[in-house]
Automatic annotation (TrEMBL):
It comes from Thalassovita litoralis. The chain crosses the membrane at residues 7-24, 148-169. It holds the Pfam family DUF1523. This is DUF1523 domain-containing protein. InterPro entries: Phage_phiNM3_A0EWY4 (IPR011088). Keywords: Membrane, Transmembrane, Transmembrane helix.
C-alpha cells in the first residue's frame, strides 16, 4: 500500500506540475528572424494545444495561424504561434494578435546586427505533433544576458502552495479531532470484542475439558 500511495501522489503532483508548466508565462531571450502565416490542420486531440478565442473556432478543422520565428543567443531555433486567447483558458485575455504580429515584424534583425527581445509565451513545443507555444508579449531587452524575474509565477505559486499548506493543516486538525478518535474507538471496540470472544472460548474449552475428565 505504501508504493500505491506514493505512486498516486507522485502522479497527482506530476499532473499539477505539468499544468503549471504549460499555463504559466515563460520568457525567452531571442532574436526575431521572421514571421509568416500558415494554414494548420486542427487534429481531434491536438486541438487542446491551439487557442479557441471564440465559439466558432471550436468547429473549425483548419485555420490560418500566424507564426514568429526566432533564434536564442546559443543559436537554437524557436517558433511561436501568435493566436488570441480571448476569454478562454488560459486567462491571458489576449486580443492583440495583429499588434503583436506587427511588433514582431518590426523587431526583425540579422546575425551581424542583432536586436534582442524577451518573448513572453505559454505552452510547449513538440515537433512531432506540431505543437507550438503561444506568444503573448514582446519586449526589447539590453542584450542576450538580460535577466527576467518571473514575478507573476512567483506570486501564483506562492499563493497556490500557501493554499495547499492551509488545507493540509486544517485536514490534520480535523483528522486529529474527529477521525483519529473515531478510529481509536473502533479499534478499542474491536479489541474488547476479541477479548470477550477469547474469554468465551476459554470458558467453553474449560467446560469441555471438565466433561472429558469426568469420563
Amino acid at each position: 500500500m505504501v508504493y500505491v500511495k506514493w505512486a498516486f501522489w507522485g502522479t497527482v503532483w506530476l499532473i499539477v506540475g505539468a499544468f503549471f508548466h504549460y499555463t504559466l508565462p515563460q520568457h525567452d531571450i531571442v532574436r526575431i528572424v521572421n514571421t509568416y502565416e500558415e494554414r494548420q490542420e486542427l487534429g481531434d486531440w491536438t486541438r487542446i494545444f491551439w487557442s479557441t478565442p471564440d465559439d466558432q473556432s471550436t468547429a473549425l478543422i483548419n485555420r490560418d495561424v500566424q507564426f514568429i520565428q526566432a533564434v536564442t543567443p546559443e543559436g537554437k531555433a524557436k517558433v511561436y504561434r501568435n493566436e488570441d486567447t480571448g476569454w478562454h483558458w488560459p486567462p491571458y485575455f489576449k486580443f492583440d494578435t495583429a499588434n503583436l504580429y506587427t511588433e514582431a515584424n518590426d523587431a526583425k534583425s540579422t546575425k551581424d546586427n542583432p536586436e534582442w527581445y524577451s518573448v513572453t509565451h505559454y505552452g510547449w513545443r513538440n515537433e512531432y505533433w506540431s505543437v507550438f507555444p503561444n506568444a503573448v508579449g514582446l519586449k526589447r531587452v539590453d542584450g542576450p544576458d538580460a535577466t527576467i524575474i518571473p514575478w507573476l509565477n512567483i506570486i501564483i505559486l506562492t499563493l497556490f502552495f500557501a493554499l495547499i499548506w492551509a488545507i493540509w493543516v486544517r485536514w490534520r486538525r480535523f483528522r486529529a479531532k474527529r477521525i483519529d478518535p473515531m478510529l481509536e474507538g473502533i479499534e478499542d471496540s474491536w479489541d474488547d470484542s476479541m477479548d470477550t470472544l477469547a474469554e468465551k472460548r476459554g470458558r467453553v474449552r474449560r467446560w469441555l475439558d471438565s466433561w472429558k475428565s469426568k469420563k
